[in-house]
Specification:
The protein has 462 residues and is of the alpha/beta class. The chain is built from 21 helices and 13 strands. Strands 2-8-7-6-5-3-4 form a seven-stranded mixed β-sheet, sandwiched between helices. Strands 9-10-13-12 form a four-stranded antiparallel β-sheet. Strands 1-11 form a two-stranded parallel ribbon. It is globular, with a radius of gyration of 22 Å.
Length: 462
């Protein structure tokens, strides 16, 4: 009996923190102490893991347990940013070849296969321009982009130090910082400004404990696209305060604006190269999962100064030894990356059309705050109903799964939002829909079920 109760508490431990507000940022809760007393474990768990929210995606998927799909009313999952199409045939063939090669079973260099590092440095020129100043010596290959983030922040900050994240944030970034004992400092954005972070607001948050600013652009969850000018201003702010700027560009291939920024432009003189090169304070992160449609193969990337990568080598050697070798060898196949660029561009255009469908069929009283790439960030019309409450009902009763704002912020949002002239009740009505892992027809079905909210759920729109 005791182990059964403990198991139930382990399941609900992180979930409880989502209710009534956004996720918890720190501190062991009374609930955690009860869990410790009832657990079958004879040892104490770390405060870091106990104070970190449970993974939001599995939490949300648990809401579907009560929904009974039918052939005419299937489950419509728009929760996770997972590519809805398989890798291109040519990439699958390269993966098959590399996986069957005996040489792919061994370790490679901690920072990744030199063939892929060299090939991808050249491929980056298609995004950032032919004169881009990034070489293979600036690149490390990691087991996914979350690994890239963790390996980076372990080099930058100690327990008790601070890293600034714009809110809404990518929850795995906040979870990782919390596990490491690093304080997440929220930089709240404004819905009426497209959820773009402000450098002046950010500067007020910087103190002696601040080690980095971490931006995701195009943003997850809101898909706000930070302009080249805004990114440059954040780089200047970081350099002025002698802190790092972490720039996660996982979704860079799904926007029209190219290049996304000019940080990688070559320095004009040798003097400026040593003092103001991007290498002095910028760390670029990238995920192969989205662009190449193979998230299960776990490849990410860090582009940073070789002086930083010396220390990243230490963290990666402890965390992964090396990233999976077969997908590295596959992508490094002669001439493959330029071929795959065509399929990436086709996927981006397909997603654009799907967003048009979503926008056209969405009920008129649902408000799109930002849209593009993988996601649409939408405010529901039911005043006084937190998004987390509505999302659970949508899953349980209508078979539509999406993620609420409460998964992308902390529970102290009220005061900070009011100081920015925003209503907490409005803030808590935003929902992230992922359009990538469903078909065009399913997008229409989702919008059709959102039209049913008032009738089926008994809710009244404002």
């Amino acid at each position: 009996m005791m182990s059964t109760i403990a198991s139930m508490l382990l399941l609900t431990n992180g979930m409880e923190r989502h209710k009534g507000g956004c996720g918890n940022v720190g501190g062991v809760q009374p609930h955690d102490k009860l869990l410790l007393m009832l657990s079958s474990l004879s040892f104490r768990l770390s405060r870091g893991v106990l104070s970190t929210i449970s993974p939001p995606i599995p939490h949300a998927k648990s809401w579907l347990a009560g929904y009974k799909p039918t052939t005419t009313r299937p489950l419509l999952d728009m929760s996770q940013g997972v590519p809805g199409t398989p890798p291109s045939k040519v990439l699958l063939e390269a993966l098959s070849h590399s996986s069957s090669s005996p040489g792919s079973s061994g370790y490679c260099h901690v920072l990744g296969a030199s063939t892929l590092r060299s090939a991808f440095a050249k491929e980056m020129k298609t995004v950032y321009g032919e004169e881009m100043d990034v070489t293979q010596d600036d690149i490390a290959i990691t087991a996914g982009c979350n690994m890239a983030f963790i390996a980076t922040v372990m080099c930058l900050a100690d327990p008790g130090d601070e890293i600034i994240l714009p809110v809404p944030w990518y929850f795995n970034h906040q979870m990782s910082l919390n596990l490491l004992g690093i304080k997440t400092v929220p930089l709240y954005t404004r819905a009426n400004e497209g959820f773009l972070p402000s450098t002046s607001d950010c500067e007020k948050l910087i103190n002696s404990r601040t080690k980095a600013i971490a931006l995701v652009t195009p943003n997850n969850p809101v898909l706000a696209i930070y302009s080249s000018d805004l990114i440059s201003k954040f780089a200047e702010l970081a350099q002025k305060n002698k802190i790092a700027l972490i720039l996660d560009e996982t979704y860079q291939d799904f926007v029209d604006t190219m290049p996304p920024h000019i940080l990688f432009a070559p320095s004009q003189t040798e003097v400026s190269k040593s003092s103001s090169s991007w290498r002095s304070n910028v760390v670029h992160l990238f995920s192969f999962s989205k662009s190449y449609c193979f998230p299960g193969h776990r490849l990410g990337l860090i582009a940073a100064s070789p002086d930083l990568l010396k220390h990243v080598t230490t963290t990666l050697d402890c965390l992964q030894i090396c990233a999976p070798r077969p997908p590295q060898l596959a992508l490094a196949s002669a001439g493959l990356l330029p071929i795959l660029r065509q399929s990436i561009q086709a996927s981006a255009q397909s997603l654009k059309k799907r967003h048009d469908i979503f926008r056209t069929h969405l009920p008129p009283d649902w408000t799109i705050g930002s849209q593009g790439g993988y996601f649409a960030f939408v405010k529901h019309p039911f005043v006084g109903i937190p998004a987390i409450t509505l999302c659970q009902r949508l899953a349980e009763e209508l078979g539509v799964l999406a993620l609420p704002m409460q998964f992308f912020c902390d529970n102290s949002a009220g005061f900070d939002l009011e100081s920015l002239g925003q209503s907490k009740t409005d803030w808590e009505r935003w929902i992230r829909f992922s359009v990538v892992n469903v078909s065009d027809d399913m997008v229409k079905q989702v919008c059709g079920r959102l039209h049913e909210c008032e009738r089926h759920l008994g809710l009244k729109a404002e």
